[in-house]
Write a structure and sequence with these properties.
Chain lengths: 287, 151
């Protein structure tokens, strides 16, 4: 890969409205909407799309973790998904939760994943078809994944600390105010109980939206390379950890680095600031 | 215990299975625009702001009529979430004609009976926002009334 690529490392990971219109009825394709707004899917969605909620479908409902492999298999089965199904994710907030859901699918080894570039907002702004009809797909028998790929694409607090101590790349994708420790949550978002503000020592600030255009689509490969390879100093084989507040914005950046720039070793620290900012003894930098 | 209009809404939602409950919430959200101020309407108090608890601007408009009964209108920015839209429509309708004091004294537990425990559990911030703003404007109104009475 050069420092100024002319195309994405994995262009097949992005689709547009034309692709959706041509392919959504295919048996081996499933369109999946994931939003912050829990009722948004109910107000209208892409024809044929199913709804997966980040909190109720993907997260363990008792402890802070993801669902177990058997629950993932059940989730896929009831949505008519097989290991061979190409899952195309889209949603609100410039695809935050779509990228989060995609990343969660990768945690369970589901490799055939794509993002609808621009997400729900662009689809709607472009006047594409929406429906309130909830599709029904034949139940499948998705095999229970043998493992969860935590080691490969997920970082835990102790690994983020090791990353910090060793000076390896840590990218903080929150807003500048959150990074500096002036606020502990996004403006207009509820405080979610973080006791300390700031960032993990050594982390570089690169807010997630730096990677997107005004219409929520991703910037060009060359622009992304300038942002992350030149400004952040990342290299194709860098052992990189990204984080935000609860892991959704950093999923967006994880997708950019992994699929659009082709970095080989990027992990999402999904515990993020709601864990780090509360953790006794965790080192913090401000400013 | 609850105002009759609100009680009727609560009873409706409690009678619905989960899927129809969600559909009804979406239906209320669809109709939230009907709660916007109508041309020519005048209000006793207006509170329009974008604060840290909501993703977009929300306006609350209170008119207290000659009998001391409150009537509410609300405006919602485009980024306001669907549950907040739904609660806006429900509360404007359910609280209409009650006094500000009655609105302020209402316990919040009816919200769970309307939207269901599951949605409250996963999205409590969104669900209670409209109620907090309505109670907030009622409190401001009553505080001003008390200060005026003392003066």
């Amino acid at each position: 890969m050069t420092t100024s690529p002319t195309q994405y490392a994995h262009p097949e990971a992005l689709v547009d409205a034309d692709w959706i219109e041509k392919n959504w009825k295919e048996n081996d394709v499933r369109i999946i909407e994931s939003n912050e707004d829990i009722l948004l899917y109910d107000t209208g969605h892409i024809p044929g799309a199913v709804h997966i909620d980040w909190r109720t479908d993907l997260q363990n409902q008792v402890i802070r973790d993801y669902i177990a492999p058997d629950q993932f298999a059940e989730l896929c089965s009831r949505n008519g998904i097989t290991p061979g199904t190409t899952c195309v994710f889209y949603g609100d907030k410039a695809n935050w939760w779509a990228c989060y859901a995609l990343w969660a699918f990768r945690l369970f080894g589901h490799e055939k994943v794509k993002i609808l570039n621009g997400g729900r907002d662009k689809w709607k702004a472009d006047g594409q078809a929406m429906t309130r009809e909830v599709p029904k797909y034949p139940q499948t028998n998705y095999p229970v994944p043998g493992k969860r790929y935590d080691k490969e694409i997920r970082a835990f607090a102790d690994e983020a600390l090791a990353q910090s101590k060793s000076g390896k790349p840590l990218i903080d994708v929150r807003s500048p105010g959150e990074f500096k420790g002036e606020i502990t949550h996004m403006a207009e978002y509820p405080q979610e109980g973080v006791l300390r503000g700031g960032h993990i020592p050594g982390a570089k600030s690169m807010p997630w939206q730096t990677a997107t255009k005004d219409d929520s689509t991703f910037k060009s490969a060359g622009e992304l390379a300038t942002i992350y390879l030149e400004h952040c100093g990342l290299k194709p084989d860098s052992d990189t950890v990204v984080y935000c507040r609860i892991g959704e914005r950093s999923s967006h950046t994880w997708f950019v680095l992994t699929y659009l720039l082709g970095l080989e070793n990027v992990r999402n620290y999904d515990g993020s600031w709601t864990e780090w900012g509360n953790k006794v003894g965790a080192p913090i930098e401000r400013g | 215990m609850y105002p009759p209009k609100l009680e009727a809404i609560i009873n409706l939602f409690e009678s619905l299975p989960e899927i129809e409950r969600r559909e009804t919430l979406v239906s209320y959200a669809d109709n939230a625009k009907k709660q916007e101020p109508h041309p020519g309407e005048k209000f006793t108090l207006e509170d329009v702001r974008k604060d840290e608890e909501c993703a977009d601007t929300v306006g609350v408009y209170l008119w207290v009529d000659d009998e001391g009964k409150a009537h509410f209108r609300m405006t919602l920015g485009p980024e306001v979430q669907t549950l907040t839209r739904a609660m806006t429509a429900i509360l404007c309708k359910g609280f209409d004609g009650r006094t500000p004091q009655e609105v302020l004294e209402l316990p919040d537990d009816f919200v769970t009976r309307i939207v269901g425990a599951e949605l409250v559990r996963v999205r409590s911030q969104t669900i209670f926002y409209a109620l907090a703003r309505i109670k907030g404007i009622c409190k401001v109104y009553l505080d001003r009334q008390r200060r005026a009475a003392v003066a």
